[in-house]
């Protein structure tokens, strides 16, 4: 982490606005603000900046670069930092204010449709305020923060073991990815490397997690277009992955299995054979489902052209995962900046330019094929040996950061450990921070009835964006 002067902070903000840099994260402490950025042309070139804020104020990044606005609003709620020039100073996580002024919309014959935060399905809470002209959406604004659980405050003073458990609970469907990012940040701070077998087991769990989530999403998107047969069949395939995870790793979501220094348990030969068989069976049963999608014109009539995300907007917000890749963005933390063992594995990163619901679904389809390939490669090359390295003693403050590819996109974890080995400060940034605003953009001009379809094609995390 490099301490910078105000002039350098402002210069970096200008580079973000010009598109030369991509914002990876922005977070605060009572007397300072931090920012992580990457060079747009070279995602491996990451900079960490710290700006001292002795008076509790700093020049807003969001005044020139919109993707920082919600991060700055959250930092103001959590740490009392005032971003000078921020165009939107409404609270983000703090719901104590009785009135929340949604952004105004002007025009004739407009009406509002409020939805949530409590929804009909068993999903997380979030409020959506539609302004529409008849059925056509003129503006959508989302209000989140209902899942705020004080996780960053709970991490302060916690042991590494407790920190790993908390990190894995930021967004339960990404527990492996979050735990892996936390573990890598801790290992970077302490300067130690987990055993090779542990590194490959981590990747195996990460790909199983990606596979399960993508299968569920493909089915759910089709279901929101009234094609329930896809949901039924994809749910069966997803359930098969979750059951195998429970049988092999002792937990359906593989929670608490990735830990600093390695993994919590090993994989035996029988479990490895079952996973290889699972990959083959999933591929065999999934391909006919995709053929069914391709030949069902009424289904594609709902997905093709709906909820289009401009590539320029995806680039400006640094949208990761299938959202960014479906709109032409070359991004995948497994490759850029990259981490073990992925440089030793053969896989493709699918990038499309469709930018619509169909494109986001199709990137998932292609990534399912890639995850199956990766699972088979890892199973065939899993090295022998130990699965965990003991945490080394450390007598000084240390910092580490990691960027890991979850199924939604890149997850950032920054960690500072105190001399006694406990956590001084930890920040966890979900990919949804940069994706929720884009959902608001893509629904404009579509009909309200297409919102569930657009929303599911994004599948942003409420919990991950609420800290």
What does this structure look like?
It contains 15 helices and 14 strands. The two termini are 22 Å apart. The protein is α+β, with helices and mostly antiparallel strands. The relative contact order is 0.15. It has helices at residues 6-18, 69-79, 151-155, 160-167, 175-190, 196-223, 228-249, 269-294, 297-303, 311-316, 321-325, 334-338, 357-381, 436-443, 451-458; strands at 2-3, 21-29, 32-39, 42-52, 57-59, 82-84, 111-115, 127-133, 136-143, 258-259, 262-263, 398-405, 410-417, 423-429.
Which descriptors apply to this entry?
467 residues, alpha+beta, Beta Polymerase, domain 2, Cytochrome-c3 Hydrogenase, chain B, four-stranded mixed sheet, three-stranded antiparallel sheet, 41% helix, 18% strand, globular
Topology (SSEs and partners):
Elements: E1 2-3, H1 6-18, E2 21-29, E3 32-39, E4 42-52, E5 57-59, H2 69-79, E6 82-84, E7 111-115, E8 127-133, E9 136-143, H3 151-155, H4 160-167, H5 175-190, H6 196-223, H7 228-249, E10 258-259, E11 262-263, H8 269-294, H9 297-303, H10 311-316, H11 321-325, H12 334-338, H13 357-381, E12 398-405, E13 410-417, E14 423-429, H14 436-443, H15 451-458
């Amino acid at each position: 982490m490099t301490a910078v002067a105000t002039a350098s902070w402002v210069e970096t903000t200008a580079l973000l606005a010009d598109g030369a840099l991509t914002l990876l994260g922005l977070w605060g402490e009572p007397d300072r603000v931090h920012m992580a950025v990457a060079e747009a042309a070279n995602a491996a070139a990451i900079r960490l900046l710290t700006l001292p804020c002795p008076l509790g104020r700093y020049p807003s990044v969001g005044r020139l670069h919109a993707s920082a606005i919600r991060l700055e609003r959250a930092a103001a709620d959590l740490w009392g930092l005032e971003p000078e020039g921020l165009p939107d100073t409404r609270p983000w996580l703090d719901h104590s204010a009785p009135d929340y002024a949604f952004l105004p919309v002007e025009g004739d014959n407009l009406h509002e449709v409020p939805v949530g935060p409590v929804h009909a399905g068993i999903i997380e809470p979030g409020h959506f305020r539609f302004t529409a002209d008849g059925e056509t959406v003129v503006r959508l604004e989302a209000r989140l923060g209902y899942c705020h659980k004080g996780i960053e405050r709970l991490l302060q003073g916690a042991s590494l073991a407790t920190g790993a458990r908390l990190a894995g609970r930021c967004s339960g469907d990404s527990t492996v990815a979050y735990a892996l990012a936390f573990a890598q940040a801790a290992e970077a701070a302490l300067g130690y490397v987990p055993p090779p077998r542990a590194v490959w087991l981590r990747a195996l769990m990460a790909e199983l997690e990606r596979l399960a989530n993508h299968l569920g999403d493909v089915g759910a998107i089709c279901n929101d277009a009234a094609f329930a047969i896809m949901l039924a069949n994809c749910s069966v395939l997803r359930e098969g992955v979750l059951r195998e995870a429970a049988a092999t790793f002792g937990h359906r979501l593989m929670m608490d299995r990735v830990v600093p220094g390695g993994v919590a348990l090993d994989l035996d030969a029988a479990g490895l054979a079952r996973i290889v068989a699972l990959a083959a069976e999933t591929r065999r049963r999934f391909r006919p489902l995709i053929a069914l999608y391709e030949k069902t014109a009424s289904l594609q009539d709902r997905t093709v052209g709906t909820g289009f995300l401009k590539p320029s907007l995806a680039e400006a917000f640094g949208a990761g995962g299938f959202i960014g890749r479906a709109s032409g963005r070359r991004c995948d933390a497994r490759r850029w900046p990259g981490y073990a063992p992925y440089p030793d594995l053969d896989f493709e990163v699918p990038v499309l330019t469709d930018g619509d619901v169909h494109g986001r679904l199709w990137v998932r389809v292609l990534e399912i094929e890639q995850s199956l390939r990766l699972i088979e490669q890892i199973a065939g090359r899993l090295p022998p040996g130990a699965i965990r390295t003991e945490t080394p003693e450390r007598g000084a403050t240390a910092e580490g950061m990691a960027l890991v590819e979850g199924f939604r996109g890149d997850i950032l974890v920054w960690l500072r450990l105190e001399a006694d080995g406990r956590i001084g400060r930890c920040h966890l940034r979900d990919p949804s921070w940069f994706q929720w605003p884009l959902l608001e953009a893509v629904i404009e001009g579509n009909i309200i009835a297409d919102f569930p379809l657009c929303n599911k094609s994004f599948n942003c995390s409420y919990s991950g964006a609420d800290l």
